[in-house]
Design brief:
Number of helices: 3
Strand order of the largest sheet: 1-3-4-2
Structural class: alpha+beta
Largest sheet: 4 strands, antiparallel
Strand content: 15-25%
Oligomer: single chain
Radius of gyration: 15 Å
Helix content: 25-40%
Amino acid sequence: MKINQLEPAEIIRDDMGTWSHPAYIAYLDAHHINEESISEEAWNAMLNHFNIETVIFFLESSVSSDDWEIMMDSCDITKWNPIAPNGFFLIDIHFGEDDAYAIFAREIREVEVA
């Protein structure tokens, strides 16, 4: 299996504050173009394809309830700047059905146990 290591990309968020990594969105478009969601198996296949692991942050757990309501009502998350965990980089920041989310990824690292 060929690994297409996903690397950080320049982030230029739109006027609503959303953005997707170009390689990530190209993969989803190529494999899941007409799907509203993908299965856990398909998600894991994408992780393997890019040799990454991910973490997801949700707006609601990252800001005050007042700020969450304002951002969700206005469909504007430009003021939300979630901080990537150490070694991770942003691959997607968008609105979901009930909340906004940010997905961060990093290369899977081999771990040696002494």
